[in-house]
Amino acid sequence: MMWHPPSLSAWDFRLIRNYREIFRMSEPRLYVIGLDGVPFTVLRDFLDQGIMPRLRELAGRSVFRSIRSVQPPLSAPAWASFLTGRPPDEHSVMSFTERDPRAMRWFTPDARQLTAPTLQEMASDMGRRVFSMNFPVTYPPKPVNGVSICGFLGKDLESGVYPEREVPLLKQRGYRIDSDVALARHDLPAFINDLKTVLTRRLETAMYYHDREPWDLFMVHIMETDRLHHFTYEAFQKGDEAIRDVYHQLYGMIDPFIGALTDQAPPGSRFLLLSDHGFTVLKREIYLNHWLWEQGFLRFNHPRPAHLGHIHPASVAYSLYPGRLYIHLKGREASGSVPPDKYEQTRETLRRALTGLRDPVDGAPVVAEVLNGEDVYAPPGLRAWHDPLTAAYPDLLVIAREGYDLKGMLWKGKPADKTVYNGMHSYDNAFWIAPQTEKAAAVNDIREAGVFTAHLLTEMF
User: Fold this and answer.
1) Nearest in space to 273 (alpha carbons), one of 56, 15, 70
2) CATH code of the region 23-279+425-460
3) Is 342 exposed, middle or buried (0-12, 13-18, 19+ CB in 10 A)?
4) Measuring CA to CA, which residue among 308, 276, 222, 304 is closest to residue 79?
5) Chain segment 303-313, per-residue pLDDT in tens
6) What is the pairing mode between strands 130-133 and 217-222?
7) pLDDT tens digits, residue range 439-456?
8) Which positions of the chain have pLDDT values less than 70?
9) CATH number for the domain formed by residue range(s) 284-417
């Protein structure tokens, strides 16, 4: 008599699925927590002072060191380098603002510009369950094997969440993509309260998702630290007691979240925490396009220039944030007039002029160095083959001395200013916490941190 397998009822299938979920609950997980703009030195001091006891426990059994950002040290290209393990010239996100020279327009790059796969996509391709919350350059969200909630620069939850069915739940929980930065310009206490509200909702929602399913890759990015630093870092560094108390409160809100994750993590789970750049006190904003205009390198065809189309054809160069200079090159820019055979000569003229740029208020030197774009962005073996007519990166990158922020607005009407922003990003002094291994200890910058994370992902799963 032939044996036939017993038929399985819907109840049987539910039991099998539940057993599978119970088994997955005990599997190791990879946790990635991004604390935007948190300097290594500040975090180290907070751990020493007992402000973050749970993170101190984790850091004490891990690699804990300073790392560098990307150049220029902006969140979009830095986090893109971490998520892809590639430098900006390879993943194609170099700043918050890019330009289309043929149309002479600027635009904000997003996930559609990324030309390399991300950690979330890698894990999904491996069949692993992924939860990603609030990381920059994840808007619009790409399909993943799990949930992806976009970070700042995302327009709204409706278009920034995958799958869309998660949107009502996020709204019900009061989740917001970002704080109301405009508040800081006129009401700092209200802004700080808003930061705490947004952070509370983010952490509560992250824990809800954490407890809902045993994710293989669980990633959460905290933006509120960066937001706080931009408007209060000078007072913090000067020892203002009220502001230092705010820092202790905000960082103290993050610590129990990290502790809860470490308490609930299955044996063998790994934790990676990092920031994308450091921070320093902002002395003054310098408006490079105004300086170019004063020096006769930039002209406009409109009394109130507002976009790249208002650049006069006779212009020599223009700037995008931060410190990225583009020669108005004929054959590349739609209105360009600088002949290609004058490119190197023009570049040297600009370099010499820029090295003499001084703070218009106190006469201090502003520029630390002026680099060729290919020396920053192009692979070493291809730098000698730099072709300005096809290169997407800037012709020159101006590196400012500490405390100077080289702004890229087309017209400001003044050469420099000190605004409500008093903290700015720094290239060095980001932090890295990772499992105690030689490879983790050898990580020197955020791109290498991404490479390490990708390798760890493949080793674990």
Assistant:
1) 56
2) 3.40.720.10
3) middle
4) 276
5) 999 999 999 99
6) parallel
7) 999 999 999 999 999 999
8) 1-24
9) 3.30.1360
